[in-house]
C-alpha cells in the first residue's frame, strides 16, 4: 500500500489523541488565532473554554512571573522565523491557584510558498508525567533519580554510565549574607544555566540543599571530567540576579558505575564520600571515588562503638565544658552554655562535628542528651548559690523534642535539683521553629508552660527572616558569630545585628550575640543594646572547676571593659513610669520630643507645640517632617540627615548639632538640637532637646553690627536683652571701667544694694514706654570696692523694644532721677 493512498480523518485523529493521552494537547489555527485545547487542559487551568482566542497570551497570563519572559521570547522567536519549535519548562497556575511545573513542546507549521505561520500544535506534559519535580529549580528531584537508577540497573544499562554529585561551595554564606529567597534564585539560575550547557544525553537532577546530580550514559573518566570542567568554567565568572552580583564555585564527587558493586546501595554513598573529599581538599574540584575512601566509614563505626560502650560504662568519656554568658551592659557573668565533649578510647579527644551527628543518627542522643541535661542542671543549682540570677543554657536536638517524654524529663531533672524552670534555657536551631511537626510544636508549648526559656540558636544562618522572627514563640534569639566576625568589614552585618536587636526588643524578646572575640566587638555590640554576649572575649569553653575559679568566684571580673552608664534613682523611676516621664517632659522649657529605633517621633512636650505655633501635640507629631525644609543648609536631605543624627545618638549616647527648622507657614527657625539616649521600659529611646536660636542670632547680629561703632567710644556702653534681663554686650571701655575681663557682664556684682540689674532695666523700660526717647538717671557703682557715682542714659535699640542700651559717664549733666 502506498502512503499517498492512506487517509485518516484529521478530526478523528485529534479526538482520539486528546482522549487517549494524559498530557495536555492544543491545536491552533494561526490565520484566525483560534486554538482548540484538550478537555483535561480546560478542566485543569483557568481557560474560557475549549475554543480559545489568542491562547498564547491567555496561557501566558497564567505563567509564573519569573518564567513569562522566557516563554514569550520562545513564541516570538518562532513567529519571527528564528525557530520552528517551542520547548520550554515553566511554572503555571492551575484552577486551584497552585503553581505547577510543566514541559511544553510545540511545532509551528508554515505556508510552503509564503512561509507565513499557519498552525501551531503542541503538547504540555503534566507534572505527573515529568516525575517528581523540584519546585525551586524545575529539575527532576532526588526521588526520580533513584527510581531511574533502579530501572536502568535492572535493565543492565549502567555498565558504561557514570554520575556525579555537585555541591555549591559555601552556599550557607549566600543564604546568610544575602537572603534565603536570594539563595533560591541562585539555585534556580544555576539549574537553568547548567541545563543549557550540558550535552543532551546528560540529565541534571536536584538533590538536597545545595546539591545537584548529573547522570551520563558515557561514564568514562574523560567524559566525567569534561563535564566538570564545563561547570567549572561556568562558575569561574561572576553572576547576577535582582541587581546583586554573586560568585560561587562547585565541588563534585564522581563515580563510574563499572567501579562499584551493589549499585543500588552504594552509588550515592560513594559519590557523597568523594564530594566530601573534594570539599575537604580545598573545594572547587572534582574527586573520583576510590575504595580507600571508605576508610573514614570504618573510623565512624569505631567511634560509634566507643560512644555506645561509654554510655554503658556510666558515660565514661563524656564530659561538659562551659562558656560564660555576660550581661552586655555590665559584663557581669550571669550564665553559661553547657557544651558536650567526648574522649574516645580509640581516637582520643574528638571535635563535636566528629561525634554529634553520630549520636543523632543512631538515636544515642536521647540517653546522652538526658545525661547532659541532668549534669548541667545540677551545676546550675550549685552556681546559683553564689550568683542567684545565674542561668544555664543547654542545646536540644530534634530527636529529643520528638520524644514524648522530653518535657517530663526536663521537669523531673529541675525538681531533683530544686531549680526554678526559668533558670534553664533550652537552645535549638532555626529549623525546629519552621518545622511543620506538630510533635515539636507541642513539645515547645509544654516547655514554655513549664517556665523554661526557649532560645533560637545561630539565627541568621538558616531559613528564618526578620519578618518571620516575631511569629515564633521564643524568649531569646542568639545571633550567629558569622555576623560578628565581619562586623566592620561588612556594613550589612552591623545593620543586621542592630535590626534583629530592635525587632526582638519590640516583641519582648532578648538577644544574645555569639562569637564576640575582641574588646572592640564587645563595645560596638554593647552600644547596640544587646542583652547578653558570649564568645572568646570572655573565655573559650572550659571545665567546671576552671569556670568556678574564674567566673563564679568573681562574676564581675570583666566589668572593667563595660561601657559605664550609671542611672540615678530618679532616672530609674522615670524610665519605667510613662506619666512621670511625660510630666518631666512638660517641665522642660525647651522643645522636647522622643524618638524610637524606627525614626518615629513618638512624644513631645507643650513647649515644642508652642515653639512652632501649633495647636496640639497631635499636630506636632503628625506634621513633624513638615517642620523642616526639604534640604538642610549643607545640601543634605533633611530626612536623611535626621536619621544619621538619631542613629549616632543611639550608638554614641548623645550628639549636639545645628538644625534648620521652619514653621508650617515656611518661616525659618534656626535651632540647636541636643539628642540624648535614654532608657525606657527595658529599651532605649532618644530624647531631643530643641533650642530656638532666633533670639540669640539676632543678639549676635546686633552686637556685631554695633561693636564697630561702640568699641572705640571713650565712654562705657552696655546692651541688655530685656526679656532675659541679661547684659549681652559691653564695650572695652565699660569692661575696663569695672575691671571686668569679658562679657556677658554680671552687672549685679557692681551695683550698690538694694539696687539690682532687673530694677535698673525695668525702670528704664517704664520711662521709655511712657514716651521718652532717652532716659537719664544717676546711681552708684562699686568700683574696686568703693562707691562711684555715675550718670546713665538708656534708650531702645530696636523698634520691637527687645534690646536696651545704657551708657555710663561722669559728666555733670543733671539727672532726671537719682537712685
TrEMBL record:
GO terms for molecular function: cyclic-guanylate-specific phosphodiesterase activity. Residues 300-555 form the EAL domain. Residues 159-291 form the GGDEF domain. It holds the Pfam family GGDEF. PROSITE patterns: EAL, GGDEF. This is Diguanylate cyclase (GGDEF)-like protein. The lineage of its organism: Bacteria, Bacillati, Bacillota, Erysipelotrichia, Erysipelotrichales.
Amino acid at each position: 500500500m502506498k502512503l499517498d493512498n492512506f487517509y485518516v480523518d484529521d478530526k478523528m485523529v485529534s479526538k482520539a489523541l486528546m482522549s487517549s493521552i494524559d498530557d495536555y494537547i492544543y491545536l491552533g489555527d494561526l490565520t484566525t488565532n483560534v486554538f482548540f485545547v484538550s478537555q483535561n487542559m480546560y478542566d485543569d487551568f483557568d481557560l474560557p473554554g475549549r475554543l480559545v482566542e489568542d491562547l498564547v497570551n491567555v496561557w501566558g497570563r497564567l505563567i509564573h512571573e519569573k518564567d513569562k519572559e522566557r516563554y514569550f521570547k520562545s513564541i516570538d522567536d518562532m513567529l519571527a522565523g528564528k525557530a520552528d519549535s517551542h520547548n520550554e519548562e515553566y511554572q503555571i497556575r492551575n484552577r486551584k491557584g497552585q503553581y505547577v511545573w510543566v514541559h511544553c513542546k510545540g511545532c509551528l507549521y508554515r505556508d510552503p510558498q509564503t512561509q507565513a505561520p499557519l498552525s501551531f500544535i503542541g503538547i504540555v506534559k503534566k507534572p505527573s508525567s515529568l516525575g517528581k519535580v523540584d519546585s525551586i529549580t524545575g529539575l527532576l528531584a532526588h526521588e526520580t533519580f533513584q527510581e531511574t537508577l533502579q530501572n536502568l540497573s535492572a535493565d543492565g544499562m549502567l555498565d558504561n554510565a557514570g554520575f556525579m554529585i555537585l555541591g555549591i561551595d559555601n552556599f550557607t554564606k549566600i543564604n546568610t549574607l544575602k537572603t534565603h529567597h536570594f539563595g533560591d534564585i541562585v539555585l534556580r539560575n544555576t539549574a537553568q544555566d547548567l541545563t543549557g550547557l550540558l550535552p543532551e544525553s546528560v540529565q541534571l537532577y536536584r538533590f538536597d540543599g545545595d546539591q545537584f546530580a548529573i547522570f551520563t550514559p558515557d561514564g568514562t573518566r574523560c567524559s566525567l571530567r569534561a563535564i566538570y570542567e564545563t561547570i567549572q568554567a561556568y562558575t569561574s565568572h561572576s553572576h547576577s540576579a535582582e541587581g546583586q552580583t554573586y560568585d560561587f564555585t562547585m565541588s563534585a564527587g564522581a563515580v563510574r558505575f563499572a567501579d562499584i558493586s551493589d549499585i543500588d546501595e552504594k552509588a550515592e554513598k560513594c559519590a557523597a564520600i568523594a564530594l566530601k573529599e573534594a570539599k575537604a581538599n580545598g573545594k572547587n574540584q572534582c574527586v573520583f571515588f576510590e575504595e580507600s575512601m571508605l576508610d573514614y566509614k570504618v573510623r565512624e563505626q569505631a567511634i560509634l562503638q566507643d560512644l555506645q560502650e561509654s554510655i554503658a560504662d556510666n558515660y565514661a568519656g563524656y564530659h561538659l565544658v562551659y562558656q560564660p554568658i555576660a550581661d552586655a551592659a555590665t559584663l557581669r557573668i550571669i550564665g553559661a552554655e553547657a557544651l558536650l565533649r567526648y574522649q574516645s578510647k580509640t581516637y582520643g579527644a574528638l571535635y563535636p562535628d566528629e561525634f554529634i551527628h553520630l549520636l543523632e543518627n543512631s538515636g544515642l542522643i536521647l540517653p546522652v542528651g538526658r545525661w547532659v541535661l541532668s549534669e548541667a542542671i545540677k551545676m546550675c543549682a550549685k552556681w546559683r548559690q553564689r550568683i542567684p540570677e545565674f542561668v544555664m543554657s543547654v542545646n536540644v536536638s530534634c530527636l529529643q523534642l520528638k520524644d514524648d517524654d522530653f518535657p517530663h524529663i526536663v521537669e523531673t531533672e529541675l525538681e531533683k535539683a530544686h531549680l526554678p524552670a526559668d533558670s534553664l534555657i533550652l537552645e535549638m536551631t532555626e529549623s525546629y521553629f519552621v518545622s511543620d511537626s506538630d510533635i515539636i510544636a507541642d513539645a515547645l508549648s509544654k516547655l514554655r508552660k513549664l517556665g523554661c526559656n526557649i532560645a533560637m540558636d545561630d539565627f541568621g544562618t538558616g531559613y528564618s527572616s526578620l519578618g518571620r522572627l516575631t511569629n515564633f514563640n521564643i524568649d531569646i534569639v542568639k545571633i550567629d558569630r558569622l555576623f560578628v566576625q565581619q562586623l566592620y568589614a561588612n556594613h550589612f552585618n552591623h545593620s543586621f545585628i542592630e535590626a534583629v536587636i530592635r525587632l526582638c526588643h519590640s516583641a519582648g524578646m532578648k538577644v544574645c550575640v555569639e562569637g564576640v572575640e575582641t574588646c572592640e566587638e564587645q563595645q560596638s555590640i554593647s552600644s547596640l543594646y544587646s542583652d547578653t554576649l558570649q564568645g572568646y572575649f570572655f573565655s573559650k569553653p572550659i571545665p567546671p572547676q576552671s569556670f568556678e575559679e574564674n567566673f563564679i568566684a568573681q562574676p564581675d571580673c570583666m566589668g572593667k571593659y563595660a561601657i559605664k552608664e550609671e542611672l540615678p534613682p530618679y532616672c530609674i523611676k522615670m524610665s519605667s513610669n510613662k506619666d512621670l516621664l511625660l510630666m518631666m517632659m512638660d517641665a522642660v522649657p525647651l522643645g522636647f520630643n522622643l524618638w524610637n529605633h524606627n525614626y518615629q517621633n513618638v512624644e513631645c512636650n507643650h513647649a515644642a507645640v508652642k515653639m512652632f505655633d501649633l495647636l496640639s501635640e497631635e499636630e506636632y507629631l503628625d506634621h513633624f517632617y513638615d517642620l523642616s525644609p526639604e534640604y538642610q543648609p549643607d545640601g543634605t536631605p533633611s530626612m536623611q540627615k535626621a536619621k544619621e543624627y538619631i542613629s549616632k545618638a543611639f550608638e554614641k549616647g548623645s550628639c549636639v548639632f545645628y538644625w534648620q527648622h521652619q514653621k508650617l507657614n515656611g518661616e525659618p527657625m534656626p535651632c540647636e538640637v541636643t539628642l540624648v539616649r535614654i532608657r525606657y521600659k527595658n529599651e532605649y529611646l532618644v530624647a531631643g532637646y530643641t533650642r530656638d536660636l532666633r533670639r540669640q542670632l539676632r543678639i549676635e547680629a546686633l552686637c556685631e553690627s554695633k561693636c564697630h561703632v561702640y568699641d572705640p567710644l571713650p565712654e562705657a556702653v552696655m546692651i541688655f536683652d530685656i526679656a532675659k534681663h541679661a547684659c549681652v554686650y559691653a564695650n572695652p571701655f565699660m569692661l575696663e571701667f569695672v575691671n571686668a575681663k569679658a562679657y556677658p557682664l554680671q552687672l549685679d556684682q557692681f551695683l550698690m544694694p538694694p539696687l539690682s540689674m532687673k530694677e535698673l532695666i525695668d525702670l528704664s523700660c517704664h520711662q521709655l514706654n511712657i514716651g521718652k526717647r532717652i532716659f537719664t538717671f544717676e546711681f552708684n557703682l562699686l568700683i574696686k570696692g568703693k562707691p562711684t557715682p555715675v550718670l546713665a542714659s538708656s534708650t531702645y535699640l530696636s523698634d520691637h523694644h527687645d534690646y536696651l542700651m545704657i551708657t555710663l559717664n561722669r559728666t555733670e549733666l543733671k539727672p532726671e532721677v537719682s537712685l
